[in-house]
Design the sequence.
């Protein structure tokens, strides 16, 4: 871990990508309320401008940059603007992301590539723009991945693959920066299902409204975790105890997902609702909402108890397997 101290959030300049809705917007509002100077980055100009007006109206300091994280030059320009506006960058939050709901073999290749351009290369571009600036005074690079970075996921396979790639990149970058003794804290935040508008923004090839895989938590929990990482060096933070439990269970008993994958996939759509038209793969979203209009998130996370819960599930699964094996030998 790092040997240097990170500043309190109240003394920081924080850049947040994907800040026009969902986790990014919740993080920007919370950081500004705690005294940080915030630069919001996204493609949705109208939502960004409104968010900045709201923050400034509440007594905070904020600015925004319209940029596509899939384009390195635009991310570089956003970083340069933050330094020109506020003098430095103390924390960079790579949060922008898009999703596709489709079986992998049915996923259109142009959509698949665009998803990786945003989710994976957006992370790479953020690091390329942020790390040289963070190294000057020390700071934090916080990247929002997902708990599905640890879990194979039906229907959202392309999304899960991109988050696996993000985890691999950030982990490797952490090792390289540590070897170079760079004063940069590198944190990967892995939310469980979060009640943001991501499902309504997704490219949806299912029959019915896309749903966020349960259990679903409130985005404020992730915002709080991100700002904790801005002040305290952490390797990883998993948000949502039940999601963490799923990841630990699948790690030790992967065959359970093989058995239950079909049932899990059914929880990711509502056939009684028509799919939300359109998506934000190639064009910006328009709603500027923090929270889903369809699902409501838990405001309490039992992530501290997840290892113990996982051990219990593992014991039950192991006992079931042994009993089944004994029965087949009779």
Sequence:
């Amino acid at each position: 871990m790092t040997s240097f101290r990170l500043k309190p959030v109240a003394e920081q300049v924080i850049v947040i990508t994907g800040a026009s809705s969902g986790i990014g917007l919740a993080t920007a509002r919370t950081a500004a309320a705690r005294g940080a100077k915030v630069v919001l980055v996204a493609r949705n100009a109208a939502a960004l401008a409104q968010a900045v007006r709201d923050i400034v109206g509440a007594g905070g300091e904020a600015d925004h940059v319209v940029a596509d994280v899939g384009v390195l030059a635009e991310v570089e320009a956003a970083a340069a603007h933050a330094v020109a506006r506020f003098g430095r960058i103390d924390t960079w939050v790579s949060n922008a992301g898009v999703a596709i709901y489709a079986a992998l073999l049915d996923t259109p290749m142009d959509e698949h590539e665009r998803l990786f351009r945003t989710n994976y290369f957006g992370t790479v571009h953020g690091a390329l723009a942020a790390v040289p600036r963070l190294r000057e005074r020390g700071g934090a690079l916080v990247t929002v991945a997902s708990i599905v970075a640890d879990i194979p996921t039906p229907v959202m396979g392309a999304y899960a693959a991109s988050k696996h790639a993000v985890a691999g990149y950030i982990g490797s970058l952490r090792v390289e920066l540590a070897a170079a003794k760079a004063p940069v804290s590198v944190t990967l935040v892995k939310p469980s299902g979060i009640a943001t508008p991501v499902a309504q923004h997704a490219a949806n090839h299912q029959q019915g409204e896309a749903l966020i895989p349960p259990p679903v938590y409130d985005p404020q929990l992730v915002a709080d975790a991100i700002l904790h990482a801005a002040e305290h060096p952490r390797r990883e933070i998993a948000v949502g105890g039940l999601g963490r439990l799923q990841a630990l269970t699948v790690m030790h008993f992967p065959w359970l997902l093989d058995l239950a994958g079909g049932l899990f996939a059914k929880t990711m759509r509502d056939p009684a609702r028509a799919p939300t038209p359109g998506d934000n793969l190639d064009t910006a979203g328009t709603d500027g909402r923090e929270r889903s209009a369809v699902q409501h998130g838990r405001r309490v996370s039992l992530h501290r108890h997840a290892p113990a819960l996982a051990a219990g599930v593992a014991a039950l699964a192991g006992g079931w397997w042994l009993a089944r094996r004994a029965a087949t030998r009779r």
Summary: The chain has one domain: 10-329.
